[in-house]
Design brief:
The complex is a heterodimer.
Chain A: H1 3-24, H2 27-30, H3 42-48, H4 53-66, H5 74-87, H6 92-102, H7 108-121, H8 126-140, H9 143-156, H10 161-173, H11 178-192, H12 196-226, H13 234-238, E1 254-257, E2 260-263
Antiparallel strand pairs in A: 1-2
Helix pairs in contact in A: 4-5, 5-6, 5-7, 6-7, 7-8, 8-9, 9-10, 11-12
Chain B: H1 2-19, H2 22-42, H3 48-81, H4 85-88, H5 95-131, H6 142-168, H7 172-198, H8 209-217, H9 233-236, H10 247-271
Helix pairs in contact in B: 1-5, 2-3, 2-5, 3-5, 3-6, 3-7, 5-6, 5-10, 6-7, 6-10, 7-8
Amino acid sequence: MNDRIQAPLLSLCALILFWAAVALQSNTTRRLERPAEVFIEGPVQVFLYGGDRFLAANIESIRAATSATATGAEHFRLRAHQGVSRLNPCHEDNYWIGNASLSWGGAVDGGFTVLFNAMHCRYWDEWPAFFYGFNKHFFQGDVKDARRVLELAAQRSPHNTAAYRNYSIMLAAGEIDDARLAVEMLKHEQNQASDPDLREMLGKRVGRLQGLVILRDAQNTFEKRFGPPLESPSELLNKGVLSRIPEDPLGIGYEFRDHAFHLREIEIK
Amino acid sequence: MFLTSLLADFNHGIRIALHSRIVTTALWFLGLLFAAVLLASQFSARQPATVALDVGLSVIRLVLPLFAILLVQELFSREFERKLYLNSFTYPRQRSYWLLGRVAAILSLSIALLVVLGTSLAFLVNIIAADYQQATPAALGLPYQITLSFIAVDLLVATAIATLLAISASTPAFVLIGTVGFLLIARSYTPIIELLQSNPYVVSNFADPRIYQDSLGMLAFLLPDLGRLDVRMIALYDKMVFMPTDWPLLLLATLAYAASLLGLSVWILNKREFN
């Protein structure tokens, strides 16, 4: 054999042997379970992105937003949105999508962290403060804290000051049908969104809230018609107020506690 | 005498650089900036112009030191590799002029690229901003110019460390590895300390996180704080509040660090024996 082709040929044969050996290895050892959903902690990311926390925040925010509709990525989204809110708490996309994705997707505490950081960093922005106040009342029933933060939103807002104060007063008087209001709010956000993925993500959350509205309306009807407060959701079915319990498009479901229906929260591992 | 000699070396340095493939490299970097900025802005729902500016500044901060390193390799390492100094150092003049003249040439070319990239980025951000009305628009005026000036100071340190490595090391590859490593640590230690404060249990569930913060904090006496020189938030959100309150001291410290590195380079070059 010619000396000139001997070495490259040997090299090629060895390479083929290498590929064959790799292909024969079992797949499980080489593959991460869900490679797209691994979140690396902030300090390590800063180092990986050349000391640039803003670049890390942008890339992670894009990853979180593109997985907004993926099922099974809830924990990744939770960690990613919270991670970005530490890398760059002022990131607008992160708190906006994070609020819709986390707070209305069953991860209420994670949503609060993201909104809290954004509210402090974006000291001029009314929206994180409004979302925070709204969620405080809706998820935790904390009227006092909700009103405090709504006043903050009112002071920051150039156009909506009166609307926020009005809302705050209605909260104090207990005159708010907050589930219906939340449906309207999410629908409004959905109409504003241009990205189809984001629209789909918001659409599912609207569906979930509409289920809650149906349940609460049914409870009202039941209590008006039969008198005593509802003790168990199954009574609604037994007495024929509801033909079936509405289905949550996110698959998380609803819960009945303290004689009222709520959105169930996901358990964080 | 000093100025004319320096100017001669400066001109010579610029000519050598332009004869190499440095213009092609600059064009590649420009293309990379366009691609990264246009792609990133597509992924933003609420603030495409801000994300475009943000990612653009990140790209500029990544490619400019590489550009400066390539120039240092071209103007210093190659000189020693090919023993061109036999020619350069025979003139009746001091080695320090040769060094400082060429450093000035490297800095001028890098800053020229910074201006080109910065202007292109402003142009791109303007186009993207015309498409979508943001609640908080990005600032392309004075805050943007301040951000770019701080990047130029960062670049000065990168050039100074690359020069020192090129003068003292014998292989050109070490200039690249050493400078990139130095910049990586100098740029990341402040953000890492800040992030550890908000999330200390990344390091360990058992040890006291303050130990790591203290030892990382000691780095401030060894390395310039390039992480805090990144003042882009003033431009991203158009709020001068995000400017570090002690920015004059920060600038002074960084400039002094670069000056000491350059002084060390002159000293080593004067002591170095060529045969």
